[in-house]
């Protein structure tokens, strides 16, 4: 049976106040390290030191560097999800599915260009983790639902994976850095793929 509810990244059982403070300190320390030294500087020890807490706390909270980097990404992901679930059209509800899909993929492309370095670090720290992350599962479910409306005769689950496959940091880095392709050119390419 197809999924009809979107999982929202970061929504979990309410935390104790001290646990929420520790989580915030760890995420803020990680974001500072990334901003100052790049994602390659993120280690569990470095984050613990920057956050002023024991490394065991960081490990207990996040498990490994990949999960920590994905948590930093998920922090911003929540705002993105709110925009496409409940925000104004065309990204949010109220626009035809093809317009919503276009707006969604354009926004995803922009986010990858903006945050590609940290996304690449998170994915390389744990290959395949992308497909288990709350962010990807939510994107996949959303795209599947739009495709189901647009092409009811197709298998939207597989199509959603195939449509999202090129939205990876390595391709966007290749296009923008090595080939000099602009964000506008990438979005025009997305429109061509969608037949818009």
From TrEMBL:
This is HTH tetR-type domain-containing protein. Keywords: DNA-binding. It comes from the Bacteria. The keyword DNA-binding applies. It holds the Pfam family TetR_N. Residues 43-62 bind DNA. InterPro entries: Homeodomain-like_sf, HTH-type_TetR-like_transc_reg, HTH_TetR. Residues 20-80 form the HTH tetR-type domain.
